[in-house]
Amino acid sequence: MVGVVLLATVVVAGCSGVVPAPVTVPTSISPAPIWLETPQMTSPTTGWTLRWIKWGVNDSELARTTDGGRTWTDVTPPAAAALLSLPDTLTPVLLARDSEHAWLALCCAGQTATSAGMLTEVFSTSDGSRTWTESEPLHGPAYGGPASLSFTGPDDGWLLLTTDTAGPARFGQLYRTDDGGRRWALVAAGVPASCDPPSLTVATTSVARIACGPPGPLLVSRDAGTHWAPQPLPRSAGAVPQFIGRTGFMTAGPASGLYLLVTHDLGRTWRRLPLPSGIGAAPDVRFLSASDGIVMPYVSPGSRVPVVYVTVDGGRTWTAVPQGLHATDPELLGYDFVSTRVWFAWYGNQAQARAQASTIYRTDDSGRTWTAITART
User: Is 273 exposed, middle or buried (0-12, 13-18, 19+ CB in 10 A)?
Assistant: First the structure.
């Protein structure tokens, strides 16, 4: 942003007084801070996020970065901008697949519940937000909206709508697309389960799962979403399974001795592998692929995470990486892992949030050293 200062001066040249026109002098003004909501970094440089425009006001926009989080550009689809600013818009669902493909599902702005249900729209881009496509409205259940999006590729996607996103969700309807989100078809209604929050993951074009936090069920469909049934889990299961294709991971066992369960056949059989000791009762275990994973040990609020564990062989072996970031609650809002080496963490001090932007930290060496980035427009 450039400010303008006007200088009025009088210059005497010979016998004539010359009064020049005002001179503009640019003055640098720091860009306004922004507040990020769960950034989704798809590469070391590119990422997507919803952000608040004003603190304490239900007014947000979709933003994108191409410089590793230093600057964020408003890429909100024009038709979605008005919906995002309305107070009765339910929490949008954003899915960023890569630097070019992203989807934004919105529901219920300015609507009232009717027997016909609430209307959801999906905005999609396949060229890095240069252009957007708006889907036809989807008729969802009353008092509900989008809960989870999952795509197996740039074209084949699944959208789960729930009957109640404010509390325990009773799943209502499942839609599918085969053209990148332009058109959606209803494939299942009344999927029989109840949990909050639901997590939809698609393993193949025919196999999908809806996972609920323990002790909720794990539902599986093997006929492209038409029929759903609970899938038994090992009795010792202690977390929601994570699936990457046919491979899945989840923690299990007592709090004093957690271990890792791994499947390579879509959950029919599970193999037990050891986890590092000293990771606490509720570690953050994330797998980025069928081979690459990270274990963030649980520490008490305000304590430092001394070491993080990394695997590149599907959990068979783990490497301890000393950490250089003081991860504290409540300032630490979350992590995003691009690879086993490139991570992002973002902070936001709630007591000072009116004046300060979210602070992003980046590491390129698995957390040994970090660089602070102030998010700006």
Answer: middle
Both tokens of residue 134?
Answer: 């708006």
> Which whole-number Å values give the CA distances from 22 to 4, 6, 17, 192, 305, in the listed order?
11, 6, 15, 72, 58
pTM (2 d.p.)? 0.82
CB 121 within 8 A of CB 105: yes
- Dihedral pair phi/psi, residue 82, rounded to 5°: -65, -35
Q: In what order do the strands lie in the sheet with 343-347?
A: 332-337, 343-347, 359-363, 371-374
Q: Provide the percentage of residues in the chain whose pLDDT is more than 90.
A: 37
Cα 4 to Cα 231: distance, rounded to the nearest angstrom: 65
What are the angstrom distances between the C-alpha of 266 and each of 176, 247, 270, 279?
21, 6, 9, 27
Give the range with max mean pLDDT: 79-83, 239-243, 315-319. Answer: 315-319
Per-residue model confidence as pLDDT tens digits over 19-32: 344 444 344 445 55
CA distances from 144 to 116, 139, 140, 288, 290 (A): 12, 10, 7, 31, 34
